[in-house]
Amino acid sequence: MRSIVISALLVLALFPPISAAQDCSQGAVQNAAQETKSIQTRLLAVKIGSSGMDPTVTPPMQELIRKIKDALASAVTEYMRCESASSVDAKKIEAGLASLLGANKPEPAQQNVTGDEPEIVDQVYGAYLQIRVTRPDSIPRMIAVKASFGVDCGMDAMLLIFQRQDGNWRQTLRWQSGNYDEVSGAFGDFFKYTVLPGEAPAGWLVVVAHGSPWCTSRWSAFDLDVIEPAEDSSHPQVIFHKETGYVRDKDPVMKARPNGFEIRVEQGSIDVEIMTRPGIYRYRVDGTTVQRVQPVAMNGRDFVDEWLLTDWSDAGHWIAAANAKSLQEEHARFDALRNPKLRPWPDITYGAVRSCSDSLTHFQVEANQDPDIHTYYQISQGENSFTMLSASPTPDPRCRGADLMQKN
Questions:
Q1: What is the C-alpha to C-alpha distance for residues 376 and 350, in angstroms, rounded to an integer?
Q2: CA angle at residue 271 from 266 to 277, to 5 degrees?
Q3: Which of 157, 296, 324, 357 is most buried per CB count within 10 Å?
Q4: 162 closest CA partner among 177, 183, 181, 147
Q5: For the whole model, what pTM was predicted?
């Protein structure tokens, strides 16, 4: 699959001044809702090929997508100006917005396409409008609104965050995709977020992860961003960004942790027989520093797989310091094997995973590269972690235990 490049457009209104514009106007609410529905109707009327094989988003379609996001943001903002209850009831707000915008309707059952049906279909772009409202536990007087709608082969989503200041709800964050000429630029096919307590001036950070819709493969890429609100509404601080691969078979899970956050996805393995494995991305957040920490894998074989695939900036933290030079050379050797310009890549499979007699925490993981190249990785298992000890073309004679992870 081609390399997916995703362009992110941040449109934020942070700490707006107090003015008469904050006054509730039911007329403004209804006008914004009507504008949203009007643009949605235009999107739903667009016809696309029923084969679902064309990821192209034409310039007119890009304009409609941009307009519906603007209309949604306006409608939600106008509604929140009229939400004056002192208690923050996320479910009540969600129900009110859904009723206002005609959102959260059951997704219609898909119909099979037969040879007698036309080769164009509609009701795809703009379909299945969803509004989800949450109240982050870590920040008082905050409401987060996720709005999403259908695009070909997936969805696009945006995040709006509101804070209650001086008796009014003010939009303090808007996060969405920019224009995209292929559906992979949309912020889907999953969209997860969590809000973390942070340092001044805003006092919080938001972590957002989103996938990349695609029409022809279960393999895709996801983006992970940690965002710090800034006083300059047009220039928020993206303090951390990561893009990496995932497999679309399972819905990722994100959660806040005491000192950071974690997201778990299904991702690819270098072993052509295993194909996929669980991926663990746990991060410690300290001020504006975001550092990946262990666990990064659920077992020793997956740890070797992750160590080989991840950047040295992270992998270099999970090694025995005494062998840093040789392990960095091994990591670079594997990187060279995966050079996109050298495809097809050599087939690699894992062999036995064996325990070793010198220590209960010492294990050996064998990796085999066609035609007949073997590498034996020595690892140490710690508490909820692994360490890469060494790599060698010959096995360690102390590692003669039974294969702990026989493949079917």
A1: 10
A2: 20
A3: 157
A4: 147
A5: 0.88
